[in-house]
Amino acid sequence: xxxxxxxxxxxxxxxxxxxxxxxxxxxxxxxxxxxxxxxxxxxxxxxxxxxxxxxxxxxxxxxxxxxxxxxxxxxxxxxxxxxxxxxxxxxxxxxxxxxxxxxxxxxxxxxxxxxxxxxxxxxxxxxxxxxxxxxxxxxxxxxxxxxxxxxxxxxxxxxxxxxxxxxxxxxxxxxxxxxxxxxxxxxxxxxxxxxxxxxxxxxxxxxxxxxxxxxxxxxxxxxxxxxxxxxxxxxxxxxxxxxxxxxxxxxxxxxxxxxxxxxxxxxxxxxxxxxxxxxxxxxxxxxxxxxxxxxxxxxxxxxxxxxxxxxxxxxxxxxxxxxxxxxxxxxxxxxxxxxxxxxxxxxxxxxxxxxxxxxxxxxxxxxxxxxxxxxxxxxxxxxxxxxxxxxxxxxxxxxxxxxxxxxxxxxxxxxxxxxxxxxxxxxxxxxxxxxxxxxxxxxxxxxxxxxxxxxxxxxxxxxxxxxxxxxxxxxxxxxxxxxxxxxxxxxxxxxxxxxxxxxxxxxxxxxxxxxxxx
Amino acid sequence: xxxxxxxxxxxxxxxxxxxxxxxxxxxxxxxxxxxxxxxxxxxxxxxxxxxxxxxxxxxxxxxxxxxxxxxxxxxxxxxxxxxxxxxxxxxxxxxxxxxxxxxxxxxxxxxxxxxxxxxxxxxxxxxxxxxxxxxxxxxxxxxxxxxxxxxxxxxxxxxxxxxxxxxxxxxxxxxxxxxxxxxxxxxxxxxxxxxxxxxxxxxxxxxxxxxxxxxxxxxxxxxxxxxxxxxxxxxxxxxxxx
Lengths: 518, 242
Description:
The structure holds two protein chains of two kinds. Chain A has two domains: 14-189, no CATH class; 196-408 and 457-495, no CATH class. Chain A is built from 26 helices and seven strands. Chain A has helices spanning 10-13, 39-44, 55-69, 71-79, 91-96, 103-118, 120-124, 126-129, 136-145, 154-158, 165-178, 184-195, 204-222, 251-265, 281-284, 288-305, 316-330, 346-355, 377-382, 391-403, 434-440, 442-455, 465-477, 488-495, 502-510, 514-517; strands spanning 237-240, 269-270, 309-312, 344-345, 371-373, 459-462, 485-487. Chain A has a four-stranded parallel beta sheet. Chain A has a three-stranded parallel beta sheet with strand order 5-6-7, sandwiched between helices. In chain A, helix 14 packs across helix 24 (488-495), helix 16 (288-305) crosses helix 17 and helix 20 (391-403) packs parallel to helix 24. The longest helix of chain A is centred in the middle third of the chain and has 19 residues, at 204-222. The model of chain A has no long low-confidence stretch (mean pLDDT 96). Chain B is mainly alpha-helical. Chain B is 67% helix and 0% strand. Chain B has eleven helices and no strands. Chain B has helices spanning 2-30, 46-59, 61-66, 68-87, 98-127, 129-134, 137-158, 164-175, 186-201, 209-212, 217-220. At the A-B interface, helix 3, helix 4, helix 6, helix 8 and helix 10 of A face helix 1, helix 3, helix 6, helix 7 and helix 11 of B.
């Protein structure tokens, strides 16, 4: 694991304005680079194994192809006026002070090459318009700084032209993959999805064992035989969830929550081994082809199992791909029941039941949790829940309020559409990037510290597998408890009163009207 | 001779501006947007998107969220520029429409606020460390060009009066292909030369943000991917049939 640079002491930096603007520190993060993918990782995804000989020409050619096929890229490379609106908005800039982590400067790494090769001014007067050739040094800069962008889109909220740095960094990563410079973490994982069906490489047998173990656990706890069905033909609902839900904590506690809710709803549902992954790292590497191949596994599983509905578990970028892209990439989904949204988020599913009064909770079961909620970037700024804009903010909070007695929001400039990335999104959740992950988490950690001090907040809930994994690692560095990060459906799981469960009986015994006990 | 040079340059600059912009806009329009990427929360209807875009281009809503100073300076500059351009219609329309005549005093004031806004924006480029870092030579030059256009324009009213009747005759002559002599005042010639420069660099510079914003997918797409299937032509290959 790469050490956090020694002059950065998270515990000493945890108190302060979450969105404090740092002093500029040129080159501070130039050495931050993820491991380069091995040849077979790249080749499995259709990319050359290593840096190709004519990489310069290939890269320029690929940039040309992307320009012709992506309006966002073309418009965004042209439109920036260097107004500076985005310069202080990136959590990696706030945490590192490296000016190349200012969104506009990150974009300029690609824009200068675009100008040199694709604009008249850049060909004639490159020095005037900041046009530069794609040299090996520039390529190294790309590899370093396009892997210090979590594609969280916070900058795009503030840009007067809506320039989305995520689009630029996806394009840059696609170009690098095309010339054989892949990132190990992402490319290896995409390969695992193609081979086995999920990011973790969890084979069907292990998955089955895990689910059976969870069933036993739930029955022991509640006395109710809640099932976690796998590959059930003809089930009504296919639940697609990040594979971390089968393996990690607090993810698994969330999965238990989904299972209890689905059980209580009385619906028939199933997980799939073939599509045992909601995450889609094809988006992170900017490869639409790979993103489409991963997405199509879900469509195939839904068809093969003959389900009527598609529900997604707690995962940020997975929900973006599901909500915004799935129909385009793998649709049409006309074989599903049109009476339900395609796809639906598990939070929407749970909240509907809560609103209809179909779920009962004993909120006091969560009294040890004084909660806040971390809006995950891809949910907040690239998707929706419910039928109104902003439902993605309200619905998870509504669930928390229904299941917990103590809920407090963090500072307004750090939540909702202005939410701060956990620091590990966009394909950066790998150990060798720990330095930039810790620094990038500083704004969020400061916001958390504020509510911890002010309201005694003990736990932060999230609906993203990456956020949960990142915070489990990062919280202790900033002096919080490691288990201070929880799943939203973990809170549901703790408080839900399943029909016929020991918890429901106890609750009813305590809350029986006085005259009835006499 | 002078009249002929400026006449030809204005035809040329107008052609470059219009054709250059038209080509760029056509390029933006025909480049596919393969996926739905509105920055959410986003409007869920087309009507809502029109409103969002209208707020963006008239109020600079996103910039307002970002930084109040940049917003204030930028907004003052753009609105002033719009008023100034509107006021300039008096040199191209005969008779002068009443509304243009009414706006005349405001238009003159706007000349000052435009230059003030530009100078404030320029000041940020020099004073704010982050903005200085991202500022290149072309950014300074663009500001210099606009400031000098403003100052040379104001100088014709407040320093050395130009025969604006003759100027108007020149431009009407250009429009009706019946050239009339252009006065040879130095401040007028500087003003017009700089405007010519601006017209020519427009389609090749960051001024493309003006048409660009309307083509920005994060702002012009509705958040309706679950309600309406989005299946544009683009990078995506036809899906493999399961």
